[in-house]
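Hello, quick one for you while I still have it in my head. No rush at all, and the record is pasted right below.
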Amino acid sequence: MLTIPKRKTKGEVGPKDHGRKMSLKDFEFAKTEEGYHYELSRGYITVSQVAKLYHALIIAALRDHLGAYRLAHTDVIFAILGAAECKLLIPDWESERHPDIAIYLAKPKGPKDDTVWRRWFPDLAIEVVSERSVDRDYIEKREEYFTLGIKEYWIVDAKREQIVVLRRGKSDWIEKRLGPDNTVTTKLLSGFKLPFQTILDAAAQADVDSE
C-alpha cells in the first residue's frame, strides 16, 4: 500500500525548519510536526530526534528518584514535568526551552490557560547532556536559566562522569562539580539524595541493552 507523506499545514514547523529564524512570539503557539523535539534557540529553530535510549534511561533514573521523594514529601514538590510537558519562555534571549526535567515547588498563579508558561517557572531545571546538546546545555541554557530566575540548574553529563550543580547567587551561578564518588543534594529538597552511581548505572544499562 502506497503511503502518502503528510503535508505540513501553513504555519506548522517541521524538521526541515531546523536553523530557521523565528521570533518567540511566532514560535510560542506554532504547530509542530509530530515525532521530533523542537526548541527556539536565541531566535533560531532547533529540531532534534526523540531521545535515544541512553539519554532516556538517564532521565528515567532521575525521575524515579525525584518521584519517590515527591511521594514521601507531598508538601514539598507540586509537579515534576518533562520536555514534552512544559516549556520555558525566555523573552530576553528569544528562546523557548523544554528542560529534560523541571521541578515546580509551587502551584501556578493566575489563569491556567496556554499562557501559564509565561509566568510559571521551575525552581529546579535538569538537562541530560547528549552529543549534540553540549553547547546548549553548558553555555546557552546556563545563561538563559539564570536570566529566567531559576534557583538551581543541574547539568548531568554521564559521558564526562560529572554533574554540574549551579545554585543561584546574587549576580551569577555558584558552581559545584560532582563526580562518581559524590551524592547530589539540594537545599530545595530537604533530605533528597542522589548517588552519582545511579546515573552511571542507567548509562551502563543502555549500553547493555544496545548489544
Summary: The chain has one domain: 51-209. Residues 53-72 form the longest helix (20 residues). Residues 96 and 124 are 16 Å apart (CA to CA).
